[in-house]
């Protein structure tokens, strides 16, 4: 899926449900954002390792701006500060 945030388009993927039955009501599972490493990478290498956690929590994988399936743009915006703000906007 794509989210248009902060002047760019960020690719993200969600694994696991956010709500699960808990007796006669629904309970919200915790959410974990999985953030890939350095430049040129994307989130796909994380899935085989972390997928098992989706039974306990909802996992949100996303590709930083200019990485993976996210939109390319001004390379001056490919910074840690922008990555953090993008994640906050996506959250």
3D structure, described in words:
The protein is an alpha+beta fold. Helices cover about 15% and strands about 35% of the residues. It contains two helices and six strands. It has a four-stranded mixed beta sheet with strand order 1-2-6-5. Strands 3-4 form a two-stranded antiparallel ribbon. The two termini are about 15 Å apart.
Summed up, what is this model?
The chain has 91 residues and is α+β, with helices and mostly antiparallel strands. It contains two helices and six strands; from the N terminus they run βββββαβα. The strands form two sheets. A four-stranded mixed sheet has the order 1-2-6-5. The protein has a two-stranded antiparallel ribbon with strand order 3-4.
């Amino acid at each position: 899926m794509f989210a248009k945030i902060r002047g760019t388009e960020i690719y993200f993927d969600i694994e696991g449900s956010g709500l699960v039955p808990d007796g006669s009501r629904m309970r919200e599972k915790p959410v974990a954002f999985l953030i890939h490493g350095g430049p040129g990478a994307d989130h796909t290498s994380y899935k085989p390792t972390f997928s098992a956690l989706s039974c306990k929590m909802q996992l949100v994988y996303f590709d930083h701006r200019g990485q993976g399936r996210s939109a390319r743009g001004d390379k001056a915006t490919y910074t840690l500060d922008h990555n953090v703000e993008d994640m906050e906007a996506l959250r």
